């Protein structure tokens, strides 16, 4: 069940020329430097003038290293803890390098002046939260759900006796040595 | 620093999970029902199948606001939902949707009482601060099958709405905690937001216990779980306080751990060994915008559908009578003592029983209370029975009291009748009186004759009475009663004897 419907711009192709022209006029009022649409019948893509929010050329500048805070160090213990918490393997050289690059990329946010601005955690924050009536509308799916499990016992799902403890770091490294990563 | 010579005392804080009484779950339309066949009340969302989204149930929001108002909380007009991540088989999504940052209600107070003092007859009133009330999802149920080394998972409970109430550590012992929980139970039941049955898991209490010397910083706390009744709550807390004091006195240190209460042994035992401190990686729930509740109709945005809003004012106006108000009303309406009205409201069904009896008898309330508290409740407690299991119905008790009022039976006789009625199913008071020949003799002529006989045969005693020794009247009374095998109406007999022994120039 959906709480809201996303009404995005349609990224369909081959829209009639009339629509293109009118939307082009609208955007011309806001940004003067829009090119005329291609009228020779070639296929149009969503990244073209239909979507005026996407700039035609990249607009960001490379931030010089000195302006950023010192790069974060990700010690082995932290990697271990994160792997344990998220059950995700990323301890290969490539995985760690990827993580560090991602953190560095996010470091650019430190340069933005957020004084006096309330933190935002979702672009939905000004949407109304839909409230449902307290009625029974679903839930009779035992058969379908149990079919999804390999192992069931008398209408119960079967799980191991407790959380299986993650093997220690050294053991995991040994296990992963032979994996495809 | 000088060593404090004060004794170590306990510090108790409670975390309570109350299952919201609603038809469907918090974020899905699955039914909420106790004891249904396993996995028969599970929707795709509850099983956390990909592509499903949470949809908030308005009834759960209203329940949380109602409970917050009854506990004098500030209702946050805007509250937020978060994800709390941990792995366990009964939590299919790998996270629980809760309200960690900004819950729906904060800063309340629960006023509770218990009977204290030397004779346990004084109403002692205390307060405990409520830090917050938040909405969150319940997890499924795990049944451990040690024989086959597996756990069976039933997701019927997964996604049911819970109100988590966090109390500040304002309590100091098991008795206080038990009284606070009992009062909360009564409040929730009066509101209808939670049925509060601890044995059915509708109300779950975890206790945070530590010890310290008054004035010094708080000690290391342990969390005590697996408490299934109010009685066990008090015992578990008191045991844990004593255990920690013992550890400290032996020079040891209390470890920050989770312990389970074992009702059989009455002890707390350490639970699962957690690998270091749990990190729940709280993050905002991306699929739910903030929850807005409105103060009153005036603040509503124009043109909004009434089924899409929760208005605090409306809920406030619809609050039912809370237990504390009920107690006051009983004292006012019947003129009974506060400790009696406390017991009436505290014992399940006792107030209704009392009011039924009052409807059917002319006896004054204070005397009826005596019967209800001593005879009725005394017997029920002795046999560990509830009011609903009483073999004597309110109507039957009322009949007995009427017979005593009209002098058909003496008060001691009535107590005997009560005992017989208790043991025999359904016999009326009148039947028992006849069978046991307990009816009072109030025939004036008969009484006069017997009194005269006794007076005539005891001149020394009569002389003593005439000289001012009134106590001797009781001896004569005893003789009269013996003649009538205890069935003389004592009030009448005393009158007649006084008349007959009046001496001097009367």
TrEMBL record, chain A:
Record has Magnesium as a keyword: no
Family affiliation: Belongs to the GatC family.
InterPro entries: Asp/Glu-ADT_sf_sub_c, GatC
A GO MF term: transferase activity
Keyword Ribosomal protein applies: no
UniProt subcellular location: Mitochondrion
Subunit field text: Subunit of the heterotrimeric GatCAB amidotransferase (AdT) complex, composed of A (QRSL1), B (GATB) and C (GATC) subunits.
HAMAP family: GatC
E.C. number(s) listed in UniProt: 6.3.5.-
Main location: mitochondrion
Cellular component, GO annotation: glutamyl-tRNA(Gln) amidotransferase complex; mitochondrion
Organism: Nothobranchius furzeri (Turquoise killifish)
Keywords of the record: ATP-binding, Ligase, Mitochondrion, Nucleotide-binding, Protein biosynthesis, Transferase
GO biological process annotation, one example: regulation of translational fidelity
Name under which the protein is recorded: Glutamyl-tRNA(Gln) amidotransferase subunit C, mitochondrial
Domain of life from the UniProt record: Eukaryota
Known catalytic reactions: L-glutamyl-tRNA(Gln) + L-glutamine + ATP + H2O = L-glutaminyl-tRNA(Gln) + L-glutamate + ADP + phosphate + H(+)
Role description: Allows the formation of correctly charged Gln-tRNA(Gln) through the transamidation of misacylated Glu-tRNA(Gln) in the mitochondria. The reaction takes place in the presence of glutamine and ATP through an activated gamma-phospho-Glu-tRNA(Gln).
UniProtKB/TrEMBL annotation, chain B:
Entry EC no(s): 6.3.5.-
Record GO cellular component, one term: glutamyl-tRNA(Gln) amidotransferase complex
GO biological process, one term: glutaminyl-tRNAGln biosynthesis via transamidation
Compartment(s) where it occurs, according to its Swiss-Prot or TrEMBL record: Mitochondrion
Catalytic activity from the UniProt record: L-aspartyl-tRNA(Asn) + L-glutamine + ATP + H2O = L-asparaginyl-tRNA(Asn) + L-glutamate + ADP + phosphate + 2 H(+); L-glutamyl-tRNA(Gln) + L-glutamine + ATP + H2O = L-glutaminyl-tRNA(Gln) + L-glutamate + ADP + phosphate + H(+)
Molecular function, one GO term: ATP binding
Keyword field contains Protein biosynthesis: yes
Pfam families noted in UniProt: GatB_N (PF02934), GatB_Yqey (PF02637)
Enzyme kind, highest EC tier: ligase
Asn/Gln amidotransferase domain ranges (all copies): 352-501
Record InterPro entries: Asn/Gln-tRNA_amidoTrfase_suB/E, Asn/Gln-tRNA_Trfase_suB/E_cat, Asn/Gln_amidotransferase, Asn/Gln_tRNA_amidoTrase-B-like, GatB, GatB_Yqey_C_2, Gln_synth/guanido_kin_cat_dom
Keywords for this protein: ATP-binding, Ligase, Mitochondrion, Nucleotide-binding, Protein biosynthesis
Subunit structure: Subunit of the heterotrimeric GatCAB amidotransferase (AdT) complex, composed of A (QRSL1), B (GATB) and C (GATC) subunits.
Its job: Allows the formation of correctly charged Gln-tRNA(Gln) through the transamidation of misacylated Glu-tRNA(Gln) in the mitochondria. The reaction takes place in the presence of glutamine and ATP through an activated gamma-phospho-Glu-tRNA(Gln).
Family as reported in the entry's similarity comment: Belongs to the GatB/GatE family. GatB subfamily.
The protein, known as: Glutamyl-tRNA(Gln) amidotransferase subunit B, mitochondrial
Organism of origin: Nothobranchius furzeri (Turquoise killifish)
